[in-house]
Write the structure tokens for this entry.
Amino acid sequence: MLALEKKDFKKHSAVISYFIANYIKTNLFEPELGEIIKYAETDRNKSDYQDFFAVSREEAEEQKVKAQKFYKSVEDFLETKYYF
């Protein structure tokens, strides 16, 4: 979506902030998607920067389901807006 808008950011946090401000706050996507992406970023940071961070299998499965929902929502949006 950002590539289609010719947007580029150096940090994941900037991408997430932009997505929330321009897609969640404007009601193009449901607020749950903002929570999904923020939670995923938190876990990514923990896994990158905390020693011995591990998630349970159940947490990983839950994150996978949420990621699939996020992906499907974005895919549907792009198909509707850009006719992919």
Remarks:
- Helices lie at 12-24, 31-49, 57-82.
- Residues 57-82 form the longest helix (26 residues).
- The two ends are 12 Å apart (CA to CA).
- Residues 16 and 68 are 17 Å apart (CA to CA).
